[in-house]
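INTERNAL TRANSFER SHEET
From: sequence group
To: structure group
Subject: Iron-sulfur cluster carrier protein

Please process the attached sequence and return the structure record in the designated field. Keep the field labels unchanged so the import script can parse them.
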Amino acid sequence: MVDTGLTREQVIDALRPVQDPEIGRSLVDLGMIKDVAIEGGRVHVHVELTTPACPLRGRIETDVRNAVTALPGVSEVSVQFSARVRAAGSGMPDRQPLPGVKNTIAVASGKGGVGKSTVAVNLAIALAQDGASVGLLDADVYGPSIPIMMGVSHRPTMRDGKIVPLDAFGVKVMSVGFILDPEKALIWRGPLVSQLISQFLSDVDWGELDYLVIDLPPGTGDAQLTLVQRIPLSGAVIVTTPQDVALADAVKGLAMFREVKTTILGIIENMSYFVCPHCGGRSEIFGFGGGERTATRHDVPLLGQIPLEGSIRQGGDIGFPIVVSDPDSAPAVAFREAARQAAARLAVEAARKPRRPRIMLRPTT
Ligand SMILES: Nc1ncnc2c1ncn2[C@@H]1O[C@H](COP(=O)(O)OP(=O)(O)OP(=O)(O)O)[C@@H](O)[C@H]1O
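Return from structure group:
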């Protein structure tokens, strides 16, 4: 083997200018370069991403390759990826994070029926498909639809005094629908809703999760406000259709999350357009571009535009969501991209947080 004289330090120095494109800081400073191995002219770099759902993995790989290839004597560069999700915490210091759960993502809508649960289900599965450990909590006491959409309905069991969530498509699922009599759901008032959901957060054995996606009840009333004040939320995704009445309510949702200092990860515009399966013509049934305009006006990202499609409705009805049933379809790709963008935003939030200083214990003499 040819000795090029190349050292680990030289490789790390070459990697210093390479940034995580989302976070805008050096991979080296962020502790994302886990290992560098050199064998003659061959260099192997192990990068630890901040989420397995990283939307810019390809770009990071290219930048790492280019930086290392530029060093004298390098003939081949291989890049290996792993991921460790970091906790973004919640906006309010008094809301304690859930033990074992790194990030909680609320999926909310100002208006009912805009596809909030559909989005929650597909986002959660998309994150799990990328390799994250994911839970999905259906907190929509007024119409828990997650059991049907995820194709799970039996009552969960108990283990060591905790509720064991059900598993569907690699996601741990818990729903008020597993426990409540659907006939009684409507009489739940704000404080009771919040008490029940708090109990679900603490009494369910979620284990170690990178992301817990929470499908909130629609609206911005008393019940929703009490909930978002009590749950330690790392971020919120707002679902809307492009229709004016939905957008007006989505703006109320943005205001609610801002009031409780929860990061808004972005807006998802659902039912954005319809492509006729017969003639291929495109119709903008609920208007067009409203989600984008609202996102721009309120300075939040637009995470995606999901078309109105029969297969999405059907996937929900039969408990076989579109990211599983037809992963290459346009809506599935849009859901996956939205999930990755949301995960990337959380990684940025986590990186902004000052690291807790290590406490050095004095040796006892
Ligand atoms: N993009 C889409 N294309 C076709 N159908 C959709 C789409 N998004 C949602 N749907 C369908 O619209 C209906 C309402 O969706 P969903 O239950 O997800 O809305 P929601 O906002 O959670 O409602 P709620 O306010 O009752 O909680 C469901 O039947 C669902 O399958």
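Handover comment: Residues 109, 112-118, 140, 143, 145, 218, 270-271, 306, 308-309, 312-313, 316 surround adenosine-5'-triphosphate (CB under 6 Å). The chain has two domains: 8-83, 101-352.
Transfer complete.
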